[in-house]
Amino acid sequence: MKAREYDTDRFDRMRRIPWLDVDAFHRARCLVVGAGALGNEVVKNMVLAGFRDITVIDMDGIVASNLSRCIFFRDSDDESTPKAEVLASRASELDPDVRITPIVSKVQDLENWDCDVILGCLDNISARLHVNSHAMYHKVPYIDGATDGFRGKVQVVLPGGPCLECSMNKSHMNVMDQRFSCTGNSMMYVPKMASEITTTSIIAAIQVREAMKIISGKPDTCIRNVMYYDGLSGTMQDYELSVGRGCPNHEEISE
Amino acid sequence: MTVRITVVNTLNNSSIRMELEPYESVEDIVDTAAEYWGKDAGAYVLRKGSKLLNRGQTVDEINLSEDDVIELIPDPEGGF
Question: What pLDDT shows up at residue A4?
Fold first, then answer.
């Protein structure tokens, strides 16, 4: 053993957590849907934690209002610069061994769902339901994050367990209807929602922490099933959810 | 049997009393509460204790009894 060998391994301190399987992180194929505020924080945490095979999908370009929450975006970036490409390029600088594949596209156009975990960093219910249904169909764990100002939530969807759609009701459908009715065509209107970096960081960190548990073979320790965070009171609470009767993603179970 | 419960809006801590029949559903409660607090109130979920309630569950199925308190929690949508 060389003197101070423990300081030459990038992941030495993580390896001191006995159950944390850093080698499994290296091998895991991860899909991050959304390269905005949550997407930046999620990818940053994943690369630092040792995830080396990450695909990021996002169709948007960078605008100045992203800069207060996105660690990888710069003033010199503009709307012609795809978020996914910039995020992939700059996050790769954190670790030369990471491979981040950007896809500049709507998630609805994504065809390859072959991965070990999906992290949802989206801003609308419609896209969430799309990812949720594919995750359920392909039996891939899905960790969805969401924020609204100082509030946020993380939902962990494990194959066969209750999913995002199980937790939704008519109020979610009403919100979706409003989004589509605003434009009068197939395009969706997504209103600008309140957002700030501290809540974004917390929610993204919890998403990646749950991915670390899953990839380390400890899904039983995951949030069960939804965690709500309130930054004003500094509280978080887990709530159980059961499989929804008539949920289309659980038809075999419901019948 | 009809039960009277309290629904608390955790966003502003206001509450309403609601009278429910055993066959009425979580969806009915969400609808009524959303109507009371404004149609543009966004997406909500309901919780009773440590459980989130599914939209299809009825008052009977979730064992709501007189003077129970359930909470309406705003469901965040953002992330960009």
Answer: 84
Whether A171 sits inside 8 A of B42 (CB atoms) is yes
- Asked whether the beta carbons of residue A123 and residue B57 sit closer than 8 angstroms, the reply is no
The per-residue DSSP string of B19-66 comes to EE-TT-BHHHHHHHHHHHH-TT---EEEEETTEEPPTT-BTTTTT--T
- Look up the pTM and report it: 0.93
Yes or no, beta carbons of B56 and A245 under 8 Å apart: yes
Q: Chain B contact for A167, CB < 8 A? A: yes
Task: Give the pLDDT band (50/70/90) at residue A64.
Answer: very high
How far apart (Å, rounded) are the C-alpha atoms in residues A113 and A116?
9
CATH value at residue B31 = 3.10.20.90
One-letter amino acid for residue B34 of the chain: A
Domains of chain A listed by start with CATH number: 5-165+194-241 (3.40.50.720)
Query: What letter does residue A5 receive in the DSSP assignment?
Result: G
Instruction: Decide if B51 is inside a domain.
Output: yes
Residues of chain B contacting residue A194, judged by C-beta atoms under 8 Å apart: 78
Q: Is the pLDDT of residue B14 over 90?
A: yes
Mutate to test the interface with B, among A68, A171, A176 (most CBs of B within 10 A): A171
A window 86-145, beta carbon within 8 A of B: 120-125, 145
Parallel/antiparallel/unpaired status of strands B69-74 and B3-9: parallel
Domain encompassing residue B46: 3-74
Task: Say how many domains are in chain B.
Answer: 1
Q: What pLDDT, on the 0 to 100 scale, is given for residue B39?
A: 60
> Is there a contact between A169 and B41 if contact means CB atoms under 8 Å apart?
no
Question: Across the interface, do A240 and B42 touch by the CB < 8 Å criterion?
Answer: no
CA-based Rg of chain A, rounded to a whole angstrom?
18
pLDDT band at A187 (very low <50, low <70, confident <90, very high): low
Residue A186, pLDDT > 60, answer no
Q: Point out the residue among A153, A169, A193 whose CB comes nearest to the CB of B55.
A: A169
